[in-house]
Amino acid sequence: MALENSNHQFLLEYPVLTSLSLIHSYPSRPLIDILEKPRSPIVDKSLSRETWIRHIDTLYLPLYTFLLNHEIRIATIITGHFIDFVAQEHPVFYQVLQDMIQKQLLYCVMDAYWGTSHLSLYYLDWWKDEIEGTQKSLKKHLGVESTAVYIPLVFRALPLERLTQGTSVRRFISTKKQKRAICYETNLREFRRFHKGKVTWIEEEDNVGIEILYYPQRLLFHMMNTKVSKNPEALVKTISMEIGLKSSRVATDIRTPSIQRSAVRIPEERPVQYYNDLQQAVVRLWEYATFILGKEHAEDEHIDDDPLMRNLFYVMHRDFLYYLDPAHYSKKRNMPFSSPYEAFVHVQNVVFQLETLLNKK
Amino acid sequence: MSKAKPNIVILSWEILPLMVGGLGVLVKSLVDELSTQGAQVQTIVPHDLPEDSFTQDTIISVAKEVRKYYRQKPIIQGLEDFVFNEFVLHVKKQYSRWPPLYSQYRGRHTQQNLYPQNTPALTRAYAKAVADWIEQQERIDVIYGMDWLSIPALFELKSRGIDIPFYFHINSTQVDRSGGESMSDPTARAIFSVEKNGFPLADKIAVVSDVQKEVLIEKYDIDAEKIFTVFNDITFEPETKGYEDLDAGKNILFIGRVTPQKGLFFLIDTAARITQVDPQVRFIIAGDGTPNGNILPQIIEEVAKRGLERQVVFTGWVNGDAKKQLYKTCQLFVMPSPSEPFGLTALEAIRSGVPAIASDTSGFIGVVPSTPVFAYHDTDAFANTILHFLHDPKARNDLLKRQTEDLKDHNWSQEVAKIIANI
Lengths: 361, 423
Known about the structure:
The complex is a heterodimer.
Chain A: H1 7-13, E1 17-20, H2 31-36, H3 45-69, E2 74-78, H4 80-89, H5 91-102, E3 106-110, H6 124-142, E4 148-150, H7 161-164, E5 171-176, E6 182-187, H8 188-192, E7 209-216, E8 220-221, H9 224-227, H10 232-252, E9 258-260, H11 277-300, H12 307-315, H13 340-360
Parallel strand pairs in A: 1-2, 1-8, 2-3, 4-5, 5-7, 6-9
Antiparallel strand pairs in A: 6-7
Chain B: E1 7-11, H1 22-36, E2 40-45, E3 59-61, H2 63-72, H3 93-96, H4 119-135, E4 142-146, H5 151-159, E5 166-170, H6 174-177, H7 186-198, E6 204-207, H8 210-220, E7 227-229, E8 251-255, H9 264-277, E9 282-286, H10 296-305, E10 312-316, H11 320-329, E11 332-335, H12 344-351, E12 356-359, E13 373-374, H13 379-391, H14 393-408, H15 412-422
Parallel strand pairs in B: 1-2, 1-4, 2-3, 4-5, 5-6, 6-7, 8-9, 8-11, 9-10, 11-12, 12-13
């Protein structure tokens, strides 16, 4: 299948990756408090709204205005929820995004609607719904039809064919610890092939060409650091300058991104290889929560509007893993939890609360 | 000495609600019962008192004097070798800086100020302040020192020639606090040395269990005739119902400080073994670490590492009603400590209708001899005992009946009367 432009060209045009997403505010509560007030919400919606407006004002608006004014091209991982929120609540930033799209400065990489990309590791069907949600929001508010999806980890067992069937998604973007960007051009059968085995479950018409692009991690500017910084303004200025510098360097670098054809196998990765024990345990809790909710939905047959489903996505935001790394806790940071252990116990409690709610149902 | 109305002064670091663990509860119960039996009791604490919860005539704060003497860096005559100023943490340094779990929910019951890092130095300042206060009193029949923290006071009183009978009431020794293991860290060695010098000087020593009596005889060379046992107890009104949401029918409860002496790693080992057999079993760990022995982060990491995140849940620090409701929510109470001087929580559990099982070094077994025991570190025995009682409701009920029967003979008034009789 013909792609809109080549990988090589794409990486030169959009050499830096950043992320636009909003994380909910969690009232951190001990288990006893949850047991005594079981009906109180898992997330604090009014606090979340305030926080999001503040984050957009202090972080995203100055950064993207800087990028717009200096005409710096950038690829952005974006969630449908973020676009919907901005379109309704923040017309100034909405206008900035529209201007960037108009000038072709912004390339949108779709994340799941609520930013729960880790769903891709477990439940492709739900993940597909989430990606389609983001696709709709992008089209509705920004008039963009994106074909690129962000995947936190790429591995052979990932059934990408379930996402490509019936959608226009063909480009998968991820990050890796490496010096240069790498592009893989392959097709679905080749991607899913294990050694010399045959992939019989993908029909010929579904065996579409796909691209897998790895950005070097140093070129991904996710804004988590700025969200927990005590002086976000200064940090945003630094990041803006760094993005400008890196994109101009990459653009003028004679070492162009390397392109690997399908003959070269994509290196296998274990999904939770890079996580510490707490993060791995939390990912397992997410998996379990997804499982129990999935069971519930399979019985009820209504997935879209169930508040329980939403509650799960709130705590499964990929940014949450940031709170589970002891290295990120220092005196300079303003974290919502007092330690990674409290963050871990919080997820335990939320999953327990979900389990209880489902049992009552 | 007047036996009709003895005048007793208690030297204690804790008294409910100024408490961290069992000591605060014990002192409060002791004061209440001694008063009921006609003694005049005053408790001297080194902390500032919360304004709303104390009456000034029974609880004396010498915090101001302690601060004054602390600045002077006093040396206690007879304890010149005891120049130890600060606790040296023997838990991993990276864990010691984490604040207690859900610290914002603790409110007034905060524990971090009761045992600050400089507690060893504070005990010497406390000794001076206590001696000053006692010198001004007209008549005191007995001074009653709780644990090693009151030992410098005994030396100070002797050096000033104050010859009032001095009794120790030992809630825990350093041997217990080290979990029965060798004392590798300097804090434990220094305190053990102070205890070894101080305990033999007392006129009498009250211990909370026969297990502890053995420890005093074996490790501290105390004459057995000096020691008398006052089994612990407290006034406890159980709750009528528990948390329905938490009750999955297979809950195992641990309540206590998350410190090395409580055997939590042993419990996690056992939990891993049990969940292989029955994944529905849930372990509830209620409690938190103390500032000088916080291993909660290590425990949580161990739980994550072993994939027990769904089976082992943490509530953080609990007290009062929440604790009572937790008892009613669970099917079994466990006490896996390598060395537990008494274990009041086991008595609370039994009175709430939850049978308790414990390691064979737990002191409360002296009061409840029908308690099933296992050797510390014997994971198989511990796991088998838990699974047996969890899966057999009849055996559980029988055990509870026997334990309740044992407790009927146990009477706090009788125990406290032993103290009065020994004065």
